[in-house]
Amino acid sequence: MGRVPKMTPAEALSALRNPLAFIAARWTPTPRTVRRAALAALVMSVVIVVTGGAVRLTGSGLGCPTWPKCTDDSLTTTSAMGVHGVIEFTNRMLTYVLCAAVGWAIIAARSEKPYRRSLTRLGWAQFWVVMSNAVLGGVVVLVGLNPYTVAAHFLLSSALIAVAAVMWQRTQEGDEAPRPLVGKAVQQLVWFLVVASVLLIAVGTVVTGSGPHAGDSSEIERMPLNWETVSKLHAVLAWIVVTLTFALWFVLKAVDAPKGPLDRTRDLFLILLSQGVIGYVQYFTNLPEVLVGLHMLGSALVWIAVLRVLLALRERLETAAPAEVPGPATEATVGTRA
Questions:
Q1: Are the beta carbons of 48 and 98 closer than 8 angstroms?
Q2: What confidence tens digit (pLDDT) does each residue in 206-263 have?
Q3: Whole-prediction pTM value?
Q4: Residue of 193, 170, 139, 202 lying closest to 41 (CA atoms)
């Protein structure tokens, strides 16, 4: 192993001013590394949703009754707080793991050659969504698990999954203008599917806000709605999404669409069927916690599958003439990039 060269004062100052540009000038990750970094951020965005659901389903939402500390006198959970404190505090700590995954995706994207500003921006978008949701999570605790703030917390997590999924897709394609693979009628059908999926997720948060799993064993405010009625509306929306997916698959076959959109639509249909089975079983078995947790995981997977269908409707070819790779000699100009 060779000796690591010493850093000059000018290099040290450059690293402090813009560490991302400093790293990018000295490291070029492989495309596979960038893809893996983006995938890691996507996986962690799903994991944080599942663990957040575990907090609610175990009644640990107020295991740490304040924020940003766990108690007024302790940053971490204490033995007196029991298992609920451990569960809630563990979920808070996983936010740092999520931040690390997003940070790794940003660094990898920023260091890729040629530099892709659009990819880096997607990484930073994830960072700001994570920070916003962390603050919102604190608000959820401070207002005693108000169901409307809990719903907003989940919807913002879904937004994070969307950005992470788009970034993962963009790491697998070039930066040329997108070329549609299907006609406008098919594109419009898919957008109807996306809108219906968003409504399905939104109504799902209302089911949670009015249902029996309040998130803590204490008396928690619930949405003043009939839980069974909202659940039936949720089921109707689910059937609309399934119907649109089946119609899309039929149309794609009829127009002899490329393999990509067909495969992504098939994947979505299979995930929807699995999610539907879990949904009906949990409804008729009085919402056992394990099935509700699986249903939350399924919700994230359905959302990712819907986005993958949308993104499969076009292709981006590799850039014909790669941009000049910034080197140490041009670091002064590169330092303005983030």
A1: yes
A2: 988 887 766 665 667 888 888 889 989 999 999 999 999 999 999 999 988 899 999 9
A3: 0.86
A4: 170
Return the structure tokens found at 207.
């089911």
